[in-house]
Amino acid sequence: MTRLHVHTLGCKVNQVEGEGIAGRAAAGGVRPVSDAAEADVIVLNSCAVTRAADLEAAKLARRYRRANPDAVIVLTGCYAQVRPAEAARLPVDYVVGHGGKDALAGEIAAMAARGRRASAEVRVAPIYRDRRLPVLPPEPGPAPDRTRRIVKVQDGCDVFCSFCIVPHARGLPRSIPAEAALAEIAGHVARGVREIVLTGPHIGSWGRDLSPPDTLASLLRRVRLEGGVSRLRLSSMEPSEFDDAVIDEISRHADVYCEHLHVPLQSGSDAVLRRMRRPYDTARFRDLTERFARALPRLGLGTDVIAGFPGETRAEFEETYTLLEASPVSFFHVFPFSPRPGTPAAKHPNQVPTPLIRARAARLRALGLRKAREFYGRFMGERLEVLLETRLDDGCYRGYSRNYIPVEVSGERLAANTLVQAKLVSAVEGRVRGEAVG
To answer: Mean per-residue pLDDT for 298-317?
Structure first.
């Protein structure tokens, strides 16, 4: 039996696709293995959001070749799509773009039988011409292997922010029809999955390319009414993608939608947002987040922010810091600016010195930690619904509340993939402890 190891780097969309390759290959008779050194075929599903992500994929490819000289190595994902010639110079046998990802699962055994290649075979087509949307949901099994499932409903982006490679890596927006998404969700729910996360690089654009066109609010309503989902989350959504229909749908049905949103800010300076080519301003971000915070008092609100974007002055950075400090945002992902070759921002003449970028990122991270502690502290002594996931060495279970607080729950007769009411009792150095009640 052919043995397969799949390693995925990057975003939730990539995670879904990596799981799909592994799951569908297993359904066809291939045996997944956790150790790349034991595999006949290794699929490295790469990211390209930063140059560092490219280099990480290259480092892993070399490491896998040293550990397993006879394995067939397939490099796929965004790095393969964006820089195929560079990727082909690595010690790999195939370089496969996104257009060929969905066929990989059926080829694993044949690739193993053919063995190593003298030079890499490149299978990368121009992504902008591809209006097809490969769907790679995991092959359904007898039982869920985790408590939540990520469902890809959209791919691609046409915003072309000045720092971002995603449109070049994943092409223009394409939507998975509602019926296909609902069918996948129904399969997960039937197998006991408690929580569904809808994802896509530009999820707010869902439905615009369909015939007839549809809207994200319509999809959300159908998932809520027809999907049978206990808990529904949305992955990251741009401030400009929330229209009144989406806001009302989420705000009025907190019994289904988790009280957790991720709304990227990137900068709290309107001047920097214009240089980034972001399709919103700080007033839009502020109004949106405050509106959600009023509608959902327990809301856990995450954001992304870039420190040291080219040309960022001290005053512009302070605008970002001040906005985040005053906003209801409770979780930060802070990214020091890293030039992404192939984007306009990489060519900007006023690059911020690296030490200054690091210092600004450190200040933002410290603010994020403080705001997270304050957010956790608001719920001490309260009961929150927690979906248990992982058993810890001390017998407790770790899981997430509906507003995305990671809670370590103690109690009797606990089990993974169950919903419990937990009374929060402490939060020390980011570790939140709770006791199962009721």
So the answer is: 98
Average pLDDT over residues 2-14: 95
| Residue pair 55/17 in contact by the 8 Å Cβ criterion | no
Specify the CATH number for 148-377; select among 3.40.50.720, 1.10.510.10, 3.40.30.10, 3.80.30.20.
3.80.30.20
For residue 341, what are its two tokens?
Answer: 């070759």
Half-sphere exposure of 248 (CA within 13 A, CB side): 6
**Domain 3-129: CATH superfamily, name plus number:** Methylthiotransferase, N-terminal domain (3.40.50.12160)
Note the pLDDT tens digit of each residue in 179-197.
999 999 999 999 889 999 9
| Confidence (pTM) | 0.92
Whether 3-129 and 148-377 share one fold: the answer is: no
Residue 326 burial by CB count (10 A; 0-12/13-18/19+): exposed, middle or buried? exposed
Spell out the residues 6+ positions from residue 279 whose beta carbon is closer than 8 angstroms to its own: 159, 238, 240
Q: What gap in Å lies between CA 308 and CA 361, rounded to an integer? A: 8
DSSP string of 183-204, one letter each residue: HHHHHHHHTT--EEEEE-TTGG
Q: If one looks up domain 383-437 in CATH, what number appears?
A: 2.40.50.140
pLDDT, residue 133, reads: 75
Task: Tell me if residue 21 falls in helix, strand or coil.
Answer: helix
Q: What proportion of the chain, given as a percentage, has pLDDT over 70?
A: 97
Q: State residue 134's pLDDT score.
A: 67
